[in-house]
Write a structure and sequence with these properties.
alpha/beta; two-stranded antiparallel sheet; 13 helices; six-stranded parallel sheet; single chain; globular
Length: about 400
C-alpha cells in the first residue's frame, strides 16, 4: 500500500462565496480597502458577458472606488505584471480585485506582491526556481479579492501564482501566505460562457491537481479526502459541462471540484507533470496549460503505473472515475482516456502549436531547472531521459 501521511498543516483563510448568484452578494462583504484596481484579461469576454459591469456595480455598492487594468495574457508575463503594478501605484489602490480565470488570479497575486515592494518580480521568485533571487518582500502584499470565471486552477483558494519570464523562457512562481485571497467568489453563472474546449482544458487542469497530489509522496489524510471528492466530481460532471455549458448543475460540481483541488495543492503537492507542462508553454505560450497537461498525461501516468509505485492509488482513482470493479492500476489509464474522449480532447497535438521533437531535451532541462522542486514529490525519481521519453511518447 502506498503510504499517506498521518500529519499535515492546513491554512485555508479565504472566505469563499460558493454557488450560483453569489456575485450578487459581494457588496455585503467587508472589503479590505476603499480603492480597488480591478484586473481582467486582455480578451473581450469579461466585458461582453457583463461580468465586469456587474463587479463594478457590486464594488460601488460597497463604497469602493475602482480603476480597471485589462492587460493580462492567457499565460501572464512579467510585462503584464509590471503594467498592473504601474496602474496600482498610479491609482493608489489599497487592494486588488481579480476578475477572470487562473491567469488573471495568478497575475493579480504577482501585482499584489510587487506593488508595495521595490525591485523586479523575479527578485521574489524563490531561489532555485530558474533565475529567481529568493528575496523576501519587505512590505506586505496588497490584499486581494478573487472572482473566478473559470474552473481550472484553484487559484481562488491558494497563495501562489505562475508567471512567464519571456526574456528567459521561464515559467516561475511567487508564493506568500499573505497572497491568499481575502474573499473569493465562485459563481457557476460566470462560467456558463466558457467555450467547450476551454471548459475541458480547465477541468483537466483541476483534475490533475488532485490526481498528482493523490499520488504525490506529500499526500496526507486531509488532502486525500479532498482529492478523492474532486476526482469523482470531475469525472462525473465535466463531460456534461463540456456538452452543455449552460447547465448550472454540472458547472457547479466542476467548480466545486476545482476549488477542492486548489485546497488540495496547499495541503499536499503536485508532481513533475506540472513541471513538464510549464516547460512546454514557457517556450510555446500559445499552448493553453490545461491542453498541454492533457497531451502528456497518458504517457506520464502510464510511466508511474509501470513502476508500480502506488498501485492501490491508481486503482482507487479508476473506481472514482467510473470503474467500480477496477482491480488493476492500468484501469486508471483506461478511465483517463475515456474521460478525454467524452470531453473531445483525446487527439490534441503538440505539432499544432509548433512543438518539435528536437526541443524535448531543452524542455526536460527547463522542467528541472525552473520547476524542479515538484520532482521531489514524485514517488519514483525521473531521470532526464525518462522525461524526454514521456514527451516523445506523447508527441503527435
Amino acid at each position: 500500500m502506498a503510504q499517506t501521511k498521518l500529519a499535515y498543516e492546513q491554512y485555508l483563510p479565504t472566505k469563499v462565496l460558493f454557488g450560483a448568484g453569489q456575485l450578487n452578494n459581494l457588496h455585503k462583504q467587508a472589503m479590505p480597502g476603499k480603492k480597488a484596481l480591478v484586473i481582467i484579461s486582455n480578451g473581450k469576454s469579461t466585458r461582453a458577458n457583463g461580468y465586469l459591469d456587474r463587479t463594478l456595480e457590486q464594488l460601488e455598492k460597497a463604497g469602493v472606488k475602482t480603476v480597471v487594468y485589462d492587460g493580462v495574457a492567457a499565460n501572464p508575463t512579467v510585462q503584464n505584471v509590471d503594467g498592473g503594478v504601474e496602474s496600482a501605484r498610479e491609482f493608489g489602490a489599497d487592494f486588488l480585485v481579480a476578475l477572470g480565470g487562473g491567469s488573471v488570479m495568478d497575475c493579480t497575486k504577482a501585482i499584489a506582491l510587487l506593488s508595495p515592494n521595490e525591485g523586479k518580480l523575479w527578485d521574489y521568485v524563490p531561489a532555485g526556481v530558474g533565475s529567481g533571487k529568493g528575496k523576501t518582500p519587505g512590505h506586505a502584499p496588497l490584499p486581494l479579492v478573487a472572482i473566478t470565471t473559470t474552473a481550472g486552477t484553484g487559484s481562488e483558494v491558494d497563495y501562489s501564482g505562475v508567471i512567464t519570464n519571456e526574456a528567459t523562457n521561464e515559467k516561475g512562481f511567487i508564493g506568500d501566505v499573505r497572497l491568499f485571497p481575502v474573499i473569493s467568489v465562485v459563481d457557476p453563472e460566470l462560467m456558463q460562457s466558457v467555450p467547450p474546449k476551454f471548459t475541458a482544458y480547465q477541468g483537466f487542469d483541476a483534475l490533475f491537481h488532485s490526481v498528482e497530489s493523490y499520488i504525490s509522496n506529500a499526500a496526507n489524510i486531509d488532502s486525500d479526502m479532498r482529492a478523492r471528492e474532486a476526482i469523482r466530481n470531475i469525472a462525473e460532471f465535466l463531460p456534461r459541462a463540456v456538452q452543455n455549458g449552460k447547465g448550472l448543475e454540472a458547472r457547479a460540481h466542476v467548480a466545486f471540484a476545482n476549488t477542492l483541488s486548489g485546497e488540495v495543492m496547499t495541503i499536499s503537492m503536485t508532481t513533475s507533470e506540472h513541471s513538464m507542462e510549464h516547460a512546454l508553454s514557457a517556450y510555446h505560450p500559445a499552448l493553453p496549460h490545461g491542453a498541454g497537461l492533457i497531451m502528456i498525461s497518458k504517457a506520464y501516468f502510464s510511466f508511474f503505473v509501470r513502476k508500480h509505485v502506488c498501485d492501490d492509488r491508481f486503482i482507487d482513482m479508476a473506481r472514482l472515475m467510473g470503474k467500480p470493479m477496477a482491480d488493476r492500476p492500468e484501469e486508471f489509464i483506461d478511465a483517463l482516456v475515456s474521460l478525454q474522449k467524452a470531453c473531445g480532447v483525446e487527439n490534441l497535438k503538440m505539432s499544432d502549436y509548433g512543438i518539435k521533437p528536437e526541443e524535448f531535451p531543452t524542455f526536460a532541462k527547463n522542467a528541472r531547472e525552473v520547476m524542479g522542486i515538484l520532482f521531489n514529490f514524485d514517488r519514483y525519481d525521473l531521470a532526464p531521459e525518462d522525461v524526454v521519453a514521456i514527451y516523445k511518447e506523447s508527441y503527435k
